[in-house]
Amino acid sequence: MWKNSSLRCLLALAILCLRSLIYSQEIGSLGDPQNLKCVTHNLQKMLCTWDVSSRGRRGQTDFCYTTNDLTPQVCFKTKERRVEIPIPESSITVTIKSSGTATKEFVIHQKDISFVPITPHILSLMPDFPTSTLNLKWSDNGSVFPYGLDALWQIQILRKEPMEVVTQVTYYSKLTHEDVILSWNWTSDMPLECTSHYVKIRCYINATQFVGSKDWSDWSPTEVIPGKDTEPGESGVFPLDPVVAVGSDLTFCCVHEEDQRITNMTYGSKSYTMMQLSSRSHAIRVLNANVSNSSGTNVVCRLENAWEGSVVFVGYAPDTPQNLSCETPNFLIIKCTWKPGRPSGLYGERRTKYSLFERTSGRNVSCEVSGLNKDHVCDFPVLPAQKTYDFILGVSNPIGQAKSSLLVDITQRVHPKTPEKLTVTENNSTSIQLRWFINGSFAEIRLLCQLEISSSHSERKLNVSTPGRKSSTYTAQVNELHPHTKYQFRVRCSDADHFWRWSDWSRGVEQTTSEAPPARGPDIWRERSPSGENVIVFWKPLSPSESNGIIVSHEVSCYLLDMLLEHKVVLEPSNSTEIKLGKSDCVISVVARNNAGSSPPSRITSVELPSDNVTTDQAVAVGNGINISWDSYPNMTCGYIVKWCHSSGSEPCSVDWQKFPSNTTSVVIKSALFKPGVRYNFSLYGCKSMGYQLLKNVTGYMKELPPKTAPNFIVEETSSDSILVKWEDIPIEECRGFFKRISSFLCKGEKDALKPRLSESGNPELKVNNITDLTKKSMKILDLQGKTSYQLELQAYTAGGLSPPNSLYVVTKEDSVGLIIAILIPVAVVVLLGVLASIFCYRKREWIKETFYPEIPNPENSKALQFQRNICEGNKTLKTLEMNPCTPNSVEVVETQSTAPKIEDTEMMSPAAETTVPEDGSESEMENHVVVSYCPPIIEEEISNPPTDEPGGSSQVVYIDIQSMYQPQIKPEEEPEIDLVTTAGYKPQMQLSISALKIEGHSPVEEELDKTAGYRPQANTNAWNMGTPDSPGSVESNNENASFGSPCSINSRQFLLPPKDDEDSPKPINTAWSFTHFFQNKPND
Amino acid sequence: MAAADSPSAALRRRDLCSRGIRLAGKMRADVVDLLDAYVEQQGLDASASVAAVEGVPLAAVERWDEQTGTQRLLENLAAYRAFRALLAQMLEEQREQLGEADAGLGRALAAVLLQVSAFAYHLEELLRLESRGIPGEEEDGPPPPPRLSRFEQKLRGLGVLRELAHWAVRSERQLAKPSPASGAAPGLAESP
């Protein structure tokens, strides 16, 4: 145990001694070699350096090293303080002895060695200004290393003043035991011209087996690409005319002279903020550039006294060609087409360029394309003995490139050229031969050609297959053409074995075939003339497809048992002829003839079999034709014929017909000539072997329309409560449909009144009568009022509607019984009142006498007395007991010859008295008047107007007979004389113009009298109300008024202030009841 | 002035001058229109300052009132010959740069080129009438211009058209204005 402890102590001591020894190797004593450091650059040798004191720096140094005890020590002398020795596998012992110093021994382990690669050197730095790209080249010095290693290269780019690191990238490479030139490209976001760019590089080798420390190499010497701002006198905007993709971020710089100042920099029309790169260079940055216009976008640098600029073209990389297709039109060239896709936005020398490369042959063709948006085409030559072509269409522009490929067998992509030189040769009227030429070498294929044969009414295509030849003419025959028809021919061709596409149609050529005899005989019909002596033969023109030419004539023959009775040649365009046949019959034959010959004959017999019970039906078109149906007639063995007649007004009837087979029982007759509202008469004939038999008639309309007119009618009889109306038939051409009914509308109405149609008036008193029995031609309308004006309208109805009305006015006669009653009742009432009044006066005569005629008259009762007297004298109207405070100032002495006046209604209401001035009678009485009092007692007579609508309503007129205080009497039958004034007695102050009171008949004589008249009252007598209902003495009273004249006259006050409304009345409205009116018709009656 | 002695020559000169005035007027109007279209199509500013372009003759020559008619004719002829070459070059550049795009501008440019050629020929006719020799055109033509950037081409085109417009005005006036020497004949046609 102790022994072990001693050993341990000895061992520890030895270790301490050894450590101190080592330490002495490194540090040593002052003046000894020290700080031995070893660095390797190639992992094979290392460079060891040490420090020595100044004393030891002179003279040679003995340097020895040994890697282990087995190898001999290597010694050599050196004057430097560095030696290169191999790198030991584990450690190396070095002894260094400088002159004048002690020998120093170092032990160097591998871990103490540093690995620093050799500083790389840039072999070249090349700028590419258009792309702003730097290309850096350097050698990796791989040959110096004993084995392959991973190397990292750090590259730094700097620019601006002072320099700023723009980017620092690490580049990875493998060292392969040989020197390799490495290359690295860097594209600057700023044009290289804008300012100087600096590049340096260093290296780090990742030697994993090396246990010592590893470090980056030193930076290589800086290489520089000088900018334009370093070149004296250089200026401009950079990059110069670049072409960039849409959406790019762009940097433009303006290099200028040192002493120049930039005003601004614009891109397009927009000004951008500048950043200074150097004292002579400024830059702007444009983000997300838009597509420029065709002339590019200007980048302008505005200096104080000049403009610098560049034009940038912003566009798209070429789109991938679409729908690439290749075909051969002639086996000489291959034509490839494609759609270019999106436009690049670049033009001119920057446009998209195309090239066609064929991989099998390795042949490349540059394509010249034109047009901006059309399909692009490129031709490639057909190569001998090559059927399959592997095309690559390359597309490129300054921004990018694209391609599209196609593998094609051209024998299956034949699109022949358009056939040329098409000609037609006629063989006969139904056959022609076509010839055409196709340019191309089609010897290896068969051609399928399509012939189009079209005429105005038909079109068909005919396929012809023929062996292909080299630039040859091809022929084809076309049959089954129609004679005398204008045809148009054209042709196109394709590959018969592998159809790809038809060629374009050739130019069309026209050919009219020659004529041939008509294909069939015309469709014929016959009719007996109205006299029955002749037969009219009709035929229909043949259609162009049947006539085979221009029909020049028809030959009509008439045979009786093979014996020709008559033969006629009828030239076109007649379609009928008349044959004199008498009462006999024959077989009629019609042949159509053109320049090429005659048609087969059409035959028809003239025999018309008798028929009975022929009915006439009515029919209206349903749809576009008129339907005619009939019962089946089994004995009609050869069908039916429907015949009708087209007639338009005055033109003669044009016969038309249609034939139908025997089993037909219903047909629809259609014709473009049918017009709505026109009546057509159809006749159905049955065909028997013996002849034709009329079976039925049908009257029809294509469409019913409203009748053009209403029936003309008259009022044949008129009574006080009924009228008898008679009307006539409407002409057929004006019916325009089948009559359904006739309607009459009756309503009270004056002739002059403007009224709407009665049928539309909605008048509740409208009387409507509908006559559906169209055989009736008259109608009696009852329950009318007598002496009344009625408006009567008649209208006719069809299914198409209502005719316009036909109207007239009629006035019913008077009802005489009612008239008599109307006269008698008032007369009886008056008489009765008179009798009662007389009885009353007679019974009360004593009282009346006492009251009104006392023995001793009481002056105060004088007016009452007067009143009493009026009553007793039977004045027709009751006078008010008005006691006017007027004292008589004179006494009127009247010598009257007339009896007490008896006023009759007839006189009062006489229209003659209203409208005319009495000419005599009244004047005779006036002559006897002696006026002795100017202001007599006033008796006012109120006369109410009859209840009328007259605007004047009622007026109050005072009539006074100064002499008798009675109304003067005028007999109604007396005609007043015109010469009223001249025959009148004295009239104070004036003669009133009589004419002023007249309505009509103002004669010149009267005018002259007016001129000579004296004083005029202060009123316009012309404006006086003539319509005032007055008594028979009204005219006379007017004259009386005229005689007084003064406005203060109580008699004339009514007329001095005539009602205004009456002035507007052009003539008096006679509303009074007049006896004569009972016998007076309306003026329009 | 031999030609001036002959009445027919005077008539011919008057006819040539009046046609020349019309031609210059039409050319001026067309160049002004072309200038507007050119500025718009090239994205330029109408106020763009264009330095004197090499080879483009300047219309604003001092004291041209003092020049004789023949001198003016010769100067005009030299100018329009230069314009003819410059416009042809512009047209070629236009085709290169734009291809089929903006064909309208190319057509207008070609039309003005035609008018310039016609006017140059017209001037030669006037000179012949003056019995003056017509200076020959350089056979090799002017030396090819240095390769210009696209922007420089645009500016040069602008300068050419502006100056051509000025020349058209000058020519029109000089043809119309009476010569200070003669007072009757058009200024351009006046011989010393």
UniProtKB/TrEMBL annotation, chain B:
What the protein does comes down to: CNTF is a survival factor for various neuronal cell types. Seems to prevent the degeneration of motor axons after axotomy.
List the PANTHER family: CILIARY NEUROTROPHIC FACTOR
The family classification in the record reads:
Belongs to the CNTF family.
Q: GO molecular function of the protein, one example? A: ciliary neurotrophic factor receptor binding
Pfam families hit by this protein:
CNTF
Q: Which GO terms describe its biological process?
A: astrocyte activation; ciliary neurotrophic factor-mediated signaling pathway; negative regulation of neuron apoptotic process; positive regulation of axon regeneration
Q: Which subcellular locations apply to this protein?
A: Cytoplasm
- This one is known as Ciliary neurotrophic factor
Comp. bias intervals (Low complexity): 176-192
Q: Return the Gene3D superfamilies for the record.
A: 1.20.1250.10
InterPro entries per UniProt: 4_helix_cytokine-like_core (IPR009079), Ciliary_neurotrophic_fac_CNTF (IPR000151)
Q: Which superkingdom, per the lineage?
A: Eukaryota
Task: Provide one Gene Ontology cellular component.
Answer: axon
Q: Which organism is it from?
A: Catharus ustulatus
Coiled-coil stretches noted in the UniProt entry, renumbered to this chain: none
Chain residue ranges for the region called Disordered: 133-152, 172-192
Q: Which SUPFAM superfamilies match?
A: 4-helical cytokines
Q: Where mainly found?
A: cytoplasm
Alphabetically list the UniProt keywords. Answer: Cytoplasm, Developmental protein, Differentiation, Growth factor, Neurogenesis
